């Protein structure tokens, strides 16, 4: 009484377990911290991108009669010691902050991935040389390194970007290398090799897609760090040159008048706090969403 | 006429310590033998089963044949051509004729590639221009019994059985003559194991394939292979036809292995 | 009344998960009992809900899990669903302990075996020496030679089979009332598997302990268990004692599962039997019997409503209309 049939297509035409396309976004938004992070990041990005549209005044325009004014309908966040509208300056400062952060982190990411994969997948001697380089660069404290470079080259936005790239790339490269090392003995890499695939193909089309997600999450957490470095250096007068506004230089300008008009310092500090929290929340929630261990439990 | 694949006195050794380490520790032989003096042959259309427990060297033997690990001594001849000592670039041609399927059906697929590109991958690797990879992917998918909807699926969306079918399709893409299957039924449910084995059996009949099946699963290997080798600590302790080995096991290790299989009958 | 004989009594347990696609109904109306001193086997293929069931017993479900209000998990007369945090701590690892599939990941690689074992006894007022003595005795009992000296060894110094023995020893340290073994031999070779099963048989004589043994290997179930529960797609489709199940299976799924096992096919054949079709989507369940889309014996009632549990005789029951109508 055989009820079973010898066939080989049983179950093969079953539907594919497919998740909705934007399932990760749904998961992200379900987490209050993630939703808040995404909201804050969007707020910062939109206000920076649209700085020219949203600014009520030209950020360079002086209005000496109205200097150090408190918040009012005319000047939402008051004016600084030269009578410039603080709100407009903060919007434009956001542009500078995001520009520095995105360019330097983006370049570091690309460089880090390339070097890390080479170190991890390439021959042993190359790995050793690259590791030595990464570790020696990482041994410098960022701020000291930045001060040293700025003394030689002179302060500018490009210098800051260069310094950040130099100092963050080794971190990314190391992570990419370690991930590559653990991936390279996985069965799917062996399977590719058994089909005849060579190193370049394996790195670009099979390792890279698996490395990007965790590194992007790290990037989103590093963005506020870079913004703080830029603000810190600008606060010390070693960053952006006036009259271009930066959150750091706004803080510095306000610092001298903190007793009578604390508005400037508060207005300069809040966007920094929002950005830091926003990107950190977003990064951490993204990690929760994409962490395979968390995902396993459905 | 010589057999399709002939392995003679093959030996694969792994280094256990680096040069300096070996000197420091005073080891005169910093190697272990993973495969020792192994010989067998595989004819066209035949299925040869390689049975052993973990650490027996069965997987290493399979990987040595396809050139993923280097053999130190002995010979591997495919269609009369010697493979031991070939450089990686010279192995390319061999890998069109011998394909390998790995243990874990899902993990042996590149996790962020769609089934379409998994199957078309070999055409890109070997730069084959006279075939349309997309059409080939459809044909192969149909051959292993999956519908076209699967072309757009990612490995994690597949069940074990479906992923195994994709693996079979990919192994078949370059019309190989030999398929080395490392634990083809591991991790699959009992009812799905049958499907995969039936599929492999049908493909063997239709395409005249030869299989080298590496497994620890005795009940399964009994139904699919013509001849068997029992491997223990890198050596073949017993070889023979499947019926011979199951009915008249000679080596005590084979006896122990057969006795250890739990009887699915409470009595 | 029955709770005194049954260590574990699960009644009408239903668990679902909130997913992006909707509610995934992982377990539906599970009834199962583990009697004192018996080994109950759970058989089922992937996706049948075995792990969700185990996690519910220990209340270790993922945060998006929803347990139905009618569900009761009575363990030694107490409802696990009503337990507070500290009660649960006392439950896990003390009154119910687990043996996992992979002995390597179940042990902490940087702590010696002796220290890990003594650590389990942290609630007991024993001196360090006494705890070590207990640990050594336990290791000896699971067949680790030279157990006193080996207490200071680390997990990587043991072979896979030895590690699983250590895991078993650790699970028995607190003298649990229920031992849950989740595919304890899947990662092991056949010869080691046979040894571990032999050990478990011995231990059940020595320890008055009930066991829930989860496996997809029918051979092991037949060899070790007294009673068997067959699960399919989140339901218990058949349960009964091991002889009834293997010789007088009633549910078509159980029958087909038994026919598929290559170890039970005596004549050598190249065409192996399979179960056609695939496991239904648990978000979008069929209206009738869960197995009906794949069932060769399906008839009209199967498509209308899900069958209840019908008794075959004694403790043997199956969720199939054929049993009712027989």
Please, could you describe this protein's structure?
The complex is a heterotrimer of chains A (298), B (267) and C (326). By secondary structure, chain A is mainly α. Chain A has one domain (30-289): MetI-like fold, CATH 1.10.3720. Chain A is 70% helix and 0% strand. In chain A, helix 4 runs antiparallel to helix 5 (124-138). Chain A is flat, with a radius of gyration of 25 Å. Chain B is α/β, with parallel strands linked by helices and 267 residues long. Chain B has one domain (5-260): P-loop containing nucleotide triphosphate hydrolases (Rossmann fold). Helix content of chain B is 37%, strand content 24%. Chain B is built from ten helices and ten strands. Chain B has helices at 19-25, 58-65, 88-97, 115-125, 133-143, 160-172, 190-207, 218-224, 242-247, 252-260; strands at 5-15, 31-42, 47-52, 73-78, 81-82, 98-101, 178-182, 210-215, 227-232, 235-241. In chain B, strand 9 and strand 10 (235-241) form a beta hairpin. Chain B is globular, with a radius of gyration of 19 Å. Chain B starts with a strand and ends in a 7-residue tail after the last helix. Chain C has 326 residues and is α/β, with parallel strands linked by helices. Chain C has a domain at 2-95 and 174-239: Rossmann fold, CATH 3.40.50. Chain C is 33% helix and 24% strand. Chain C has 13 helices and 13 strands. Chain C has helices spanning 50-57, 85-91, 103-106, 113-120, 128-141, 147-150, 160-172, 190-206, 218-224, 242-247, 252-260, 300-304, 321-325, and strands spanning 6-19, 22-35, 39-43, 65-67, 72-75, 78-79, 96-99, 178-182, 210-215, 227-232, 235-241, 310-313, 316-318. In chain C, the strands form two sheets. Chain C has an eight-stranded mixed sheet with strand order 7-8-9-3-10-11-13-12, sandwiched between helices. In chain C, strand 12 and strand 13 form a beta hairpin. Chains in contact: A-B, A-C, B-C. Chain A binds chain B through residues 6-19, 186-188, 190-198, 201, 205-206, 209-210, and chain B through 63, 66, 68, 91-92, 95-96, 99-100, 102-104, 107-113, 121-122, 124-126, 144-147, 149-150, 153, 157-159, 161-162, 165, 167, 170, 191-192, 194-196, 198-199, 201-202.
